Amino acid sequence: KSKIGKLRLDEKALKDNLGEGNTIFVGSSTDMWAKEIPVDWIGKVLLTCCAYPDNTYLFQTKNPRRFMDWEFPKNVILATTIETNRDFRINKAPPTDERMRIMKELKVFSPLMISIEPIMRFDMDMFVSWIKDIKPKFVSIGADSKNSDLPEPNKREIDFLIKELKKFTEVKVKDNLRRIT
């Protein structure tokens, strides 16, 4: 069960024409790889993606361990959220250090992406090292947009993080980061 109600697979959406040349963020409103999601739902979604091979599909999760159970087509980007290198335990997701280790193991299978959203206080050298070791195709950085009163870095720390990340990967800054920069 999610915050908004009972989980369900929208079977009708699986029949939509996905076209070609599109980048599609699959499950952007939920974590399709969460432990509560049935395996057969994931399989149905992947089959639909395979039927439209001229698109690129972004799968993002806080539970990247489930990526290890699947073979992915070449047109997939695998992503996880790593908000910080510190252990704040703000949700039920696996700890960020576990997500980092798993993503390092996945690097040979598919292009990777890291989402640092909501960005939280971090230890610069360790955090940059984690991300560099994952070798993501790009990193997306955003702020807390739910007013959760999370421990956030200051503008100087964020600017320096972006500068360091740009040395080895593309960085995409989300509009909501302006609130703290």
Structure in words:
There is one protein chain. This protein is of the alpha/beta class and 181 residues long. It contains 4 helices and 6 strands; from the N terminus they run βαββαβαβαβ. It has helices at 39-50, 96-106, 124-134, 155-165; strands at 23-26, 56-61, 76-81, 112-116, 138-141, 170-173. It has a 6-stranded parallel sheet with strand order 1-2-3-4-5-6, with helices on one face. Helix 2 runs parallel beside helix 3 and helix 3 packs parallel to helix 4. The N and C termini lie far apart (35 Å).
Question: Which tags fit this structure?
Answer:
25% helix, 4 helices, six-stranded parallel beta sheet, single chain, 16% strand, alpha/beta, 181 residues, pyruvate-formate lyase- activating enzyme, 6 strands
How would the blueprint of this fold be written?
Elements: E1 23-26, H1 39-50, E2 56-61, E3 76-81, H2 96-106, E4 112-116, H3 124-134, E5 138-141, H4 155-165, E6 170-173
Parallel strand pairs: 1-2, 2-3, 3-4, 4-5, 5-6
Organism: marine sediment metagenome
Protein name: Amidohydrolase-related domain-containing protein
The share of residues in helices is 10-25%
Give the CATH class: Alpha Beta
Radius of gyration, in Å, reads: 17 Å
Tell me the number of strands. Answer: 6
Span between termini: 35 Å
Largest sheet: spatial strand order: 1-2-3-4-5-6
Shape verdict = globular
Count of runs of 4 or more consecutive helical residues: 4
CATH architecture: Alpha-Beta Horseshoe
Taken together, the total number of domains comes to 1
Helix-strand topology string: EHEEHEHEHE
Q: Mean of residue pLDDT?
A: 93
Strand content: 15-25%
Main pleated-sheet profile: 6 strands, parallel
CATH topology assignment = pyruvate-formate lyase- activating enzyme
Q: Give start-end ranges of low-pLDDT stretches.
A: none
